[in-house]
TrEMBL record:
<dbReference type="GO" id="GO:0097035">
    <property type="term" value="P:regulation of membrane lipid distribution"/>
</dbReference>
<keyword id="KW-1133">Transmembrane helix</keyword>
<feature type="transmembrane region" description="Helical">
    <location>
        <begin position="137"/>
        <end position="156"/>
    </location>
</feature>
<keyword id="KW-0472">Membrane</keyword>
<feature type="transmembrane region" description="Helical">
    <location>
        <begin position="12"/>
        <end position="31"/>
    </location>
</feature>
<dbReference type="Pfam" id="PF03798">
    <property type="entry name" value="TRAM_LAG1_CLN8"/>
</dbReference>
<dbReference type="GO" id="GO:0055091">
    <property type="term" value="P:phospholipid homeostasis"/>
</dbReference>
<dbReference type="GO" id="GO:0071709">
    <property type="term" value="P:membrane assembly"/>
</dbReference>
<feature type="transmembrane region" description="Helical">
    <location>
        <begin position="211"/>
        <end position="234"/>
    </location>
</feature>
<protein>
    <recommendedName>
        <fullName>TLC domain-containing protein</fullName>
    </recommendedName>
</protein>
<dbReference type="GO" id="GO:0005886">
    <property type="term" value="C:plasma membrane"/>
</dbReference>
<dbReference type="GO" id="GO:0007009">
    <property type="term" value="P:plasma membrane organization"/>
</dbReference>
<feature type="domain" description="TLC">
    <location>
        <begin position="44"/>
        <end position="242"/>
    </location>
</feature>
<keyword id="KW-0812">Transmembrane</keyword>
<dbReference type="InterPro" id="IPR050846">
    <property type="entry name" value="TLCD"/>
</dbReference>
<feature type="transmembrane region" description="Helical">
    <location>
        <begin position="177"/>
        <end position="199"/>
    </location>
</feature>
<dbReference type="InterPro" id="IPR006634">
    <property type="entry name" value="TLC-dom"/>
</dbReference>
Length: 258
C-alpha cells in the first residue's frame, strides 16, 4: 500500500468513525423520544423501532445523495470506475459509518435469523474498502447506494408494522405498491444494469482482476439476497386471502452492493 493510498484510507475511515458515532448518538439519545406507544410494549420491540428508524434516516440521506451525485457528475454514469467525486466520497464515508455502527448494534442484540443481516453488513463493509482506499470504483458504489431509495419504503413498511398500523389503510397499501415498484427498479433492474456494465468493461484500464472478481461476487450475492427478499415481500403483502402479516425483524437486506 502506497503512502497516498494509506492516507486516503485513513482519512476515509476517520470520517466513517465520526459517522458511526453520529448514528450511535441518534440511536441512543434522540430516536428513543419518538418511539410510538404501540412499539413500547417490550424492550425488544422498542429497540427494533429505534434501529429501523435509524436505518430509515440512513436510507433517505444516502439514497437521495446518490441520485444527486449522478446528477452532479454526469461522467460518473459513463465511467463507474475512474470518475471521482468529493460529494460521492463523503456519501460513502457516511454510509460506511452507518454500517459499522449498525453491525455492532445488531450483534449486541443477536437473535435467531440475525445472521442474514450481519452477513449482508459484512459484505457491504468489505465492498467499501476498495473505493475508500483507492478513490476509484465510486460509480459502482453509488449505483449500490441507489438501492437505498427502495429501502426508504421498506423501512417505512416495517415501522408501520411495529407501530401496529392498520394494514388495510390506504397509506399502508400505497407504501406497499411504491415499495414494490422501487424494489424492482433499484434492486433488480439497476443492479442488473451495473452487473452488465462491469462484465462489458472488465478490460477497463483501472479494472484489476481482483476488483472484477470482487465486484462480480458481490453483485451475485446481493442479487440472490434481493430475490429472496422480494419473495418474502410478495408473500407477505400481495398474497390473496392472507392472514395479518407478521413482523419479520428488520426485513431488509439494505441490499447495497458496494
Amino acid at each position: 500500500m502506497s503512502l497516498e493510498t494509506y492516507q486516503d484510507f485513513t482519512n476515509s475511515y476517520l470520517l466513517s468513525i465520526f459517522s458511526a458515532l453520529v448514528f450511535y448518538g441518534n440511536n441512543r439519545w434522540i430516536l428513543p423520544r419518538f418511539v410510538p406507544k404501540n412499539a413500547r410494549h417490550s424492550k425488544k420491540s422498542e429497540w427494533e423501532w429505534i434501529n429501523i428508524a435509524n436505518s430509515l434516516i440512513h436510507s433517505f440521506i444516502t439514497g437521495m445523495w446518490a441520485l444527486f451525485c449522478f446528477w452532479q457528475v454526469p461522467d460518473m454514469r459513463q465511467d463507474l470506475i475512474s470518475t471521482y467525486s468529493f460529494s460521492a466520497h463523503m456519501c460513502m464515508c457516511l454510509s460506511n459509518g452507518y454500517f459499522i455502527y449498525d453491525f455492532i448494534d445488531m450483534a449486541n442484540h443477536w437473535e435467531e435469523g440475525g445472521f442474514e443481516i450481519l452477513f449482508h453488513h459484512i459484505v457491504v463493509l468489505i465492498g467499501y474498502t476498495v473505493p475508500l482506499s483507492s478513490l476509484k470504483y465510486m460509480g459502482i458504489t453509488l449505483v449500490g447506494l441507489l438501492i437505498e431509495v427502495n429501502s426508504i419504503f421498506l423501512h417505512l413498511r416495517t415501522l408501520m408494522k411495529l407501530a401496529k398500523a392498520d394494514t388495510k389503510s390506504i397509506s399502508y397499501h400505497v407504501n406497499n405498491v411504491v415499495n414494490l415498484g422501487t424494489f424492482v427498479l433499484f434492486r433488480i433492474l439497476t443492479l442488473g444494469w451495473m452487473t452488465r456494465w462491469v462484465v462489458l468493461n472488465r478490460e477497463h484500464k483501472d479494472m484489476t482482476k481482483t476488483a472484477f472478481y470482487i465486484a462480480s461476487a458481490l453483485c451475485s450475492i446481493i442479487m440472490v439476497m434481493n430475490v429472496v427478499l422480494l419473495h418474502r415481500i410478495l408473500a407477505d403483502d400481495f398474497k390473496t386471502n392472507k392472514k395479518q402479516p407478521q413482523i419479520n425483524n428488520k426485513q431488509t437486506s439494505h441490499a447495497k452492493i458496494q
